[in-house]
Amino acid sequence: MTQLAVEALDVAYGDFQVLWSAELEMQAGEIVAVLGPNGAGKSTLVNTISGLLRPRSGTITFEGERIDGMPAYRAAGEGIAHVLERRRLFPFLTVRDNVLLGAHNPRARPHREQTLARLEALLPLLKARRTQLAHTLSGGEQQMVAIARGLMARPKLLMIDEPFLGLAPRMVQEIGALVRRIRDEQGISVLFIEQNVELSLRLADRGVVLESGRTVLSAPSAELLRSAEVKRIFLGDVAL
Amino acid sequence: MKTAAGAVAFFAIAGLAPLVVGDAFLLDSLVLILIWGCAAGAWNIAGGYAGQISLGHSAFFGLGAYAAALCGVRWNISPWYGVAIGAALAMGAGTVIGFLANRLRGPYFVIATIAVSQVLLLGAARWRGFTAGSEGIPVPFRPGFWTLGIPDKRIWVWLVLALALLVYLAQVYLERSRRGFQLAAVREDEDAALSLGVAARRLKVVAIAVSAAFTAVCGALWAQYVGFVDPLYVFSVDLSVRFALAAIIGGLGTALGPFLGSVLVTTVETWLRAQFGGLGSHLIGLYLILYGIALIVMVRFAPQGIVGWLRHR
Amino acid sequence: MSLLRVRGVTKRFGGITANRGITFDVAAGELVGIIGPNGAGKSTLFECISGFYRPDDGAVELDGTRLTRMSPDRVCRLGVARTFQKLRPFQGLTVIENVMVGAFTRIHDVRHAREQAHEWLRRVGLAEKANAHARTLSTGQRKRLELARALATQPRLLLLDEVTGGVDQRSIPGLVELVRELHAGGLTLLVIEHNMRVVTAVAQRIIALHMGEVIADGAPGAVSRDPKVVEAYLGQAYVA
Would you say residue B192 lies in a domain? Predict the structure, then answer.
């Protein structure tokens, strides 16, 4: 069943329109990558789904309910967690405090300790670095903590903006594996934005490609990998 | 142009007033309005036109005041030399502050300007051998134009009016000239101005130095008029705030604004003094409350100051 | 004859090397496109050329004069103008006044500067907006204003940073045409662009950056097919 449906979405900053009738569809339990050249509107799309931005027109439906225009803190309560670009941990709070803050919304708060215990089993790093200040962690470690913080909200859909940004290859592998486990073990759907096309398509089930604010491709990863159309979108008309 | 007419009206009224008004108190108020207007206008050159908000301009005012007073008291020379020396010293101090403006942003710059004025205050108050310390310097009254000992208040009005005209025209120049446009660009967005070939750093320093010089001249004339230089007053933060306030309330970055603002601020202050008498510390507190309210009202209803409000009616 | 010579420009920020050994020449009258994925170092390169950043290593020369270590305003007076990716109009000034600031680099007389400014506004199609306040302009109009302002400094080399970024599709051909006209008039241009269609349409030559280094330099067709470029944007899998 369709878990998330974005239809005909127009989003603008003042008179500066970024998304033009953008579309996206996700099934429960899928891993979907949102790709596209810079300025295509990927972050804007995800920010609008999580409620950080209001669309000018169009609809966003999550598990049958309209969530477009809903403020971000309520979308979190509905089951959507958003891990922001560049992690955005609270630098002077400990790992534990950062993670616990993820369970702030009323749906997740009663189960805080339980969720934390489960996450610590999934990510031993959380327990080991419990009292360490967030800004002292490496990029990859911060990314894991940020994802854990997102998971504390007990989401049904986890959205990550650029999970691999600035990470070493080894870390990229680990984060990729973590994303897989989140979906495989807990059935959480994952939507992520990435610059690295090949990496994303190897991790995701499906890819959605945006170009200049429009959805131009949506297909299983296998199809998009090596696709000439993808090449054209990123590198222009090869045939001159 | 509306404000040109306003300026003509303002200067005409101020110029003709001494011929019509005989009351010493009113003439005295007019002299003070004009002096504070000049000081606010001088501040406006740095704060309004160059966008360098300073709360340390009393440093320059005090330098001018002391230069004039010391010339008369210590060296027995005409206080007009004091005007020139004060202006020169102020330009030097202004250049230092300009240097700071290129290193510090926003609130840090403001704090640095306050610091400079307070350092001078402490220096003047402690240096008993030179400045008679915190007791201040009574300025000797020697009759004559060359010694700036002028008993007739009407002459004072015209003298300060001449300075006011100069300050006004300097500001108008900044609105119309090439340097003025470049300065406006620096004020709006320094990096964008740099990318267009504007020597932003140099312009800022020059604007502050010119502003400083004019402020010092105000200080020197004021010292001669009032007859007493008290370091705790001439270098005070309170005074710096008044210059800025008059300019902001009157219309930041407009040529007539500082003078209109001074009319308001000086009138209020004179009224307060008449009501409560003396310069007790409680009175200073009252000033600040009223100034604060005036600023809030201004920002809410007329953010471009009196001039802006008049323009849009 | 080389108008611009960039030799081994290197710029570091803490642990990140934004530009590494960048070397290329631009001949007078050329229009060179600069492309590269996000974070490749394109904007940093512009900052180094225009004098806002001081390179840690290497040199930039304009017609034999060393630009490195010069303040940005001196660089402009020597003949290098630029636009900014995040538009920076002088909000409190009118459109014509904005352009006059640029004109004042070469012209001292106010009336003459105003005339020239009008001329530039006519060139970019903003003549009717001359007395409007800059803050009332739309994004596309602001782009044109920024262009007119930079052109008023009568540059020999113009650096355009994402001139079509954030502009709606309908306005792009107009802007592209304007850039073409400027080039046809003899101006040398360096253009950063993410929109591959725009770049391949106007540039005679493209330089591709990736992770701070030049990975390709040549004709548009050749560059967009260059395996290194394909890999940088998409990944190994796409290299044909």
Answer: yes
Give the span between the Cα atoms of A134 and A87, in whole angstroms.
Answer: 11
- Domain for residue B256, yes or no? no
In a domain, B98, yes or no: yes
Dist CA C53 CA A93 (whole Å): 34
Tell me, what CATH number does A37's domain have? Answer: 3.40.50.300
- Could you tell me if B290 lies within 8 Å of chain C, comparing CB atoms? no
Please give the ipTM for the structure prediction: 0.93
Rounded distance, CA B29 to CA B153, Å? Answer: 10
Which strands sit side by side in the sheet containing A206-211, from one edge to the other? Answer: A80-83, A157-161, A189-193, A31-35, A206-211, A214-220
**Residue-wise DSSP of A139-151:** HHHHHHHHHHHHH
Mutate: best of C62, C93, C104, C108, partner B, most B CBs <10 A:
C104
Residue C76 CB-density burial (10 A; 0-12 exposed, 13-18 middle, 19+ buried): buried
Task: Show residues of chain B in contact with C72, CB under 8 Å.
Answer: 191, 194-195
- The pLDDT value recorded for residue A14 is 77
Whether A101 shows a pLDDT value over 50: the answer reads yes
- A185-237 per-position pLDDT tens digit: 989 999 999 988 999 999 999 999 998 889 999 999 999 998 888 888 888 76
How much is the pLDDT for A237?
61
Asked whether the beta carbons of A175 and C17 are under 8 A apart, the reply is no
Residue A126 lies in a domain: no
CA A161/CA B112 separation, integer angstroms: 42
Query: Bridge partners of A158?
Result: A81, A190
Query: CA-CA distance, C26 to C60, in Å (whole number)?
Result: 11
Alpha-carbon span C192 to C82, nearest angstrom: 11
- Does the residue A111 lie in any domain? no
Tally of domains within chain A: 1
Please indicate whether, in this complex, the C-beta atoms of C230 and A15 are within 8 angstroms of each other. no
Mean pLDDT over each residue of chain A, to the nearest integer: 89
What range does the domain containing B185 cover?
A: 2-234
Could you give the 3-state DSSP secondary structure of residue A103?
Answer: coil
- Please tell me the total count of domains within chain B: 1
DSSP three-state, residue B95: helix
Alpha carbon C138 to its chain's center = 20
In-domain check, residue A137: no
Show the tokens assigned to C76: 């402009």
Residue listed under structure tokens 């009206």: B9
Give the β-pairing of B137-138 and B228-229: antiparallel
Name the pTM for this structure.
0.84
How far B226 CA lies from chain C's nearest CA (Å)? 40
Is residue B69 in a domain? yes
- Contact (CB<8Å) B196/C77: no
pLDDT band at B284 (very low <50, low <70, confident <90, very high): low
Query: C2-79+155-238: what CATH class?
Result: alpha beta
Q: Return the number of other C-beta atoms located less than 10 Å from residue A118's C-beta.
A: 16
Domain coordinates of chain C in residue numbers? 2-79+155-238, 88-154
Q: Is residue A185 part of a domain?
A: yes
CA C140 from chain center: how many Å?
Answer: 16
